[in-house]
Amino acid sequence: MTRNAPARFNARAFVTLCVAFGFGLLAASGIVLYVAPPGRVANWSRWTLSALDRHQWQAFHTVFALLFAVAGAFHLW
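The structure assignment produced for this chain is given below.
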């Protein structure tokens, strides 16, 4: 009976997964922000989607844009 060696960490696969994950969440949050009502209307009506208001969706979008940019730079490198 032979024992398989533990799998090594594959940095290229990890960076590619981060790029794909970042793009998916960035696209989803971008669609949510596109269909969300404008700023004042969203504030006055207390608009939320999945328990996040417009400002929280904007922060979510910004964080994943940063992840996507950093992972994309590593991917190109």
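Interim note for the steering committee: The first helix runs from residue 11 to 35. The CA atoms of residues 10 and 50 lie 34 Å apart.
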